[in-house]
Design goal:
single chain; alpha/beta; 7-stranded mixed sheet; 5 helices
């Protein structure tokens, strides 16, 4: 039987991913270094997000790509520094494999649950030539484990069709309680404020 191992780069010691967690997350027998990203990884996080968007939208992001990259870089840096964005990178020696991020959302405590954060899983991305090898499952298991340690009460995400099976296999379920209202880009404020 394969032993599943997520090996951390500093500052955290290596941590085993148990066979039960690996099975629940559909992790194949794969060895990868899973490390927590730092501010030094901002450019990798940004380029991975752009790759993710290209893959999901099945097109190149040509119009405004430089502006999108600059805004994303600013967002990632600010959220890293505020400790609201936590990102994990999967690697093998000299090779980027995939990435996942967890954005912490503040929420008020509830009766019976005094935790004050939900976690929004974003930018789950594995390079196309490394998909279906268990890397996404390793990243997701690491994200969920660390999110629980950060006090996350509930995890939410937007699933692609390709990722839906992985998420459902570990217990994610669609909900009918959430509603969204998008604001057209032209109406978005240019400055933060009310």
């Amino acid at each position: 039987m394969c032993r599943y191992r997520a090996v951390y780069a500093s500052p955290v010691a290596g941590r085993d991913v148990t066979p039960d967690v690996a099975r629940d997350a559909n992790i194949a027998c794969v060895t990868a270094v899973i490390r927590k990203a730092t501010v030094a990884d901002v450019d990798l996080v940004v380029s991975s997000r752009l790759d993710f968007l290209r893959a999901v939208r099945s097109t190149e992001i040509l119009d405004g790509e430089a502006q999108l990259a600059a805004k994303t870089r600013s967002f990632v840096r600010a959220e890293f520094e505020a400790e609201r964005l936590h990102t994990w990178i999967a690697e093998q020696p000299g090779e980027f494999l995939g990435i996942v991020s967890l954005l912490l959302w503040s929420r008020p405590p509830r009766p019976g649950d005094l935790r004050v954060a939900d976690g929004y899983i974003i930018n789950m991305y594995v390079r196309p030539d490394r998909q279906r090898q268990g890397i996404g499952g390793l990243l997701l298991a690491e994200c969920l484990q660390n999110g629980r340690e950060l006090g996350v009460a509930r995890f939410v995400l937007h699933s692609t069709d390709e990722g839906r099976h992985l998420y459902e296999s570990i217990g994610f379920r669609p909900t009918q309680n959430w509603m969204t209202l998008a604001t057209p880009a032209a109406e978005q404020p240019t400055a933060v404020g009310w």
